[in-house]
Here is the input.
Amino acid sequence: MKTKRTALAVILAMVMAFAMVALAGCGKSSSSSSSSATPTAQPTGEELIVGFDQEYPPYGYIANDGSYTGFDLDLAQEVCNRLGWTYKAMPIDWDSKDAQLNADTISCIWNGFTMEGREGQYAFSEPYMLNEQVIVVKADSGIQSLSDLEGKIVMTQTESAAQTVLEDEEGQKALADTFQELQTIGDYNSAFMNLESGSVDAVACDLSIAAYQLSANPGKYTQLGESLSSEHYAVGFKLGNEEKAQKVTDTLKAMYADGTVAKIIDKYADQGMTIDNWVLK
Here is the structure.
């Protein structure tokens, strides 16, 4: 009997051990299947220093906690995660962006950067966002069309796409010649402060900036129905970095396909962002 009991005990121990191994195996399989859906890569040792305008919401700005945030920065960080690159955000003066890119203090310009008119000057990714140059005025200004800007003071950001189109003979220079003055300033936040104070009559800016200001200040401003121009945003690298630009393009396409882009855009929906303007698919 003792021998039988001993044998039975051994058999029971073996069964229990087998069951524990099986359960452990099932647990490991379950854990693996519930891992993050976002693809990540092993670090490559490569760093992406993203040059951006810290006063350009919703694409790049300073959050309430002092961190750098914004739609473009979220895109850049996710691209780096997937490629195994180290991500770093570097605020820059917009009018010094080329000098910093050429000095390699930044790796790219990624912050609502218009590619039209800059072809051949940068190694661009494919365009990812549709943009327009528009005019914003005070809601009670009485200005309802571009022709109403005659004799008015219009402000835009220095070295911006809006400045380019308003000074371009083939763009809207004829319109700008009717203004009392076309003024420039270092950032759009300051431009809208001037508009609010009444020192200028209108601000020429990107569609995204207009959408942000109208969303943040309901009833205060209005956007004219006529646009100055239509264009696209892309990521700009120094010439010679076409391969890196292509990697960014391919990763952004993958992010659109798996729904990540839509989630990031939704995060900034209350700041005027919409998936309708995304063009890289």
In short: Confidence is low (pLDDT under 50) at residues 1-37. The longest strand covers residues 129-138.
